[in-house]
Amino acid sequence: MAVFIREVTSEDDDGRDGDALKDDIQGWSSNLEFLRENAILQDETLYDRLHKVSEDALGPEEDRTSTPPVSVKHPQGGVALERLLCRVSGSPNNSQGRRCYSLGYSYERPRSVIHPCRNMKFQANIPEEEDFRTRLLEVATECGGHAMSLAPKERIDMIENIGIIKNTPPLGHAKNRRYWTGFQVNVSRPIPHQNASDFQEDLGRAGDAHPDSNDQIGSFSVLLVATETPKGYTTANFHLIELGAFDYTPVPLLRPSKLLTTFLATSTV
User: Fold this and answer.
1) Could you read off the pLDDT of 6-41 as tens digits, one per residue?
2) Quick check: is 6 in a domain?
3) How many separate domains does the chain show?
4) Which positions ≥6 away from 210 have C-beta within 8 Å?
5) Is 5 helix (H, G, I), strand (E, B) or coil?
6) Is residue 8 part of a domain?
7) Interval 238-263: pLDDT, tens
């Protein structure tokens, strides 16, 4: 699915006579299989790497709970990624929701000093084999970069040039041609159908209709659904309210969003 907008000359112009080649793309959905079939993605290992890091982020099923970890010093419950981030920064969630975690850059004003956000800082007491934060960031931005290959070349070249002019450091993977500086992981449990309050309990503002007024105009963001939907469950609709459209597609999925986001859904209720 793709969403376009078309300029019209007046209120009476219904746009039917417009040139489709001049329509402006607003967003699209895809998956790794489509990217492979169309020779956009040639790395046969990417799906397996995404699956592996997603399983690592969830951790053993018997250790998962439907709520975040309950202890900072000795975190238990939640999923493995949440327990890891508790060990890194104590209180890792951001202001959007109790299970929303930033893994990109932080910016300090007025001098625009850029450094890793608190959840990405080095911790000497965490063994390298237990620390999959960088691997998660790399694989997610690699997936997103391949999906961006479907965008008009002049648009993605322009976005990259803006990043170069701003001296924005590349994030995650070389396929991220300075498209994104932010990376947010959202962890959501399965919820009953049409019970939106439970979704917002985990994700807060990110789980409800909201504007992102600080996003760069003309840029694209990616929503990456990183885990397979368990049997007996369905994925939720993703709504583009300002365009009057929504999408429903099996995962793994790349869709337009306001942030580069990975959803990791626990399989325990």
Assistant:
1) 888 888 888 888 888 888 888 888 877 888 787 788
2) no
3) 1
4) none
5) strand
6) no
7) 777 777 777 765 443 333 333 334 44
Cis peptide before 75 (omega within 30 of 0): no
State the Cα–Cα distance between residues 261 and 140, nearest whole angstrom. 8
- Full domain range(s) for residue 55: 29-265
How far is the C-alpha of 4 from the C-alpha of 7, rounded, in Å? Answer: 10
Count each helix (H run) and each strand (E run) in the chain, helices first. 6, 11
Q: Which letter, b or e, does each residue of 84-94 get, where b requires 16 or more Cβ atoms within 10 Å of its Cβ? A: bbbbbbeebbb
How far is 74 from 87, CA to CA, in rounded Å?
8
With contact defined as beta carbons under 8 Å apart, do 253 and 225 qualify? yes
Q: How far apart are the first and last CA of the chain?
A: 31
Residue 98, class by beta-carbon neighbours within 10 Å (0-12 exposed, 13-18 middle, 19+ buried)? middle
Question: Residue 1: inside a domain, yes or no?
Answer: no
pTM of the entire structure?
A: 0.78
* Distance separating alpha carbons of residues 163 and 105, to the nearest angstrom: 14
